[in-house]
Design goal:
This protein has helices at about 5-25, 25-30, 35-40, 45-50, 60-80, 80-100, 115-130, 145-160, 170-185, 190-195, 195-215, and strands at about 35, 110, 135, 145. A two-stranded antiparallel ribbon has the order 1-2. It has a two-stranded antiparallel ribbon with strand order 3-4. The longest helix has 22 residues, at about 60-80. With about 220 residues, it is mainly alpha-helical. The chain is built from eleven helices and four strands; from the N terminus they run ααβααααβαββαααα. The relative contact order is 0.14. It has one domain (about 5-215): Up-down Bundle (Rhomboid-like fold), CATH 1.20.1540.
Length: about 220
Amino acid sequence: MNNIAPITLGIIAVTTIVSLIGFSNQALFDRMKFNVGAILHDKQWDRVMSSALLHGDMMHLIFNMLTLYFFAKVLIAFVGTVYFVAVYLAAILCGGLLSLYFHRKNSHYSAIGASGGVTGVLFATIALYPEIGIAFFFIPIPIPGWIFAILYLAFSIYAMKGQLGNIGHEAHLGGAVIGLVLALIMVPEAIYVNAVYIAIMFVPILVLAYMVYKERK
């Protein structure tokens, strides 16, 4: 699990390159970002997926790619490359469609980021291996994976309350749910082995779901 898989490296490389180009190329950024009006009225459905290749700033990009790096290799070790890619893409798709549903009456709404896919991989991994230790270079003590997952969604909740940027917070919710569901479908015994951790992770998911519903009501 120490070596990065080629597919993970590819996703990180492509996302980083496109995001960096998007920082200075407004035309590309505007064409690829998630935008309700462009999707529903102009039928540009590719934006649901292409927006995952864009990020708001360098910190947004680094945080998402670091999270993907740490958790992708663990998920691949459990379920293999094909299922990892399936989780990542399904989480992006479901997160995007959830955002589209909640903002369907606001044609000006836009969002960017791979957060849906990253959150899906994160929660799928934690469902299978909740006690994995995550160590960052600026934090000397490893953080248990299930705590990191809660903190990750907690930041999304904070960002939503503060209306920080045009990051797709609904995508976090959709990604988290689809990640958990797909992991438990692929490895059903995890439901019994990691039941307590899975239940704990549903708490921030339910809080975020309530906030999304309340904000968009």
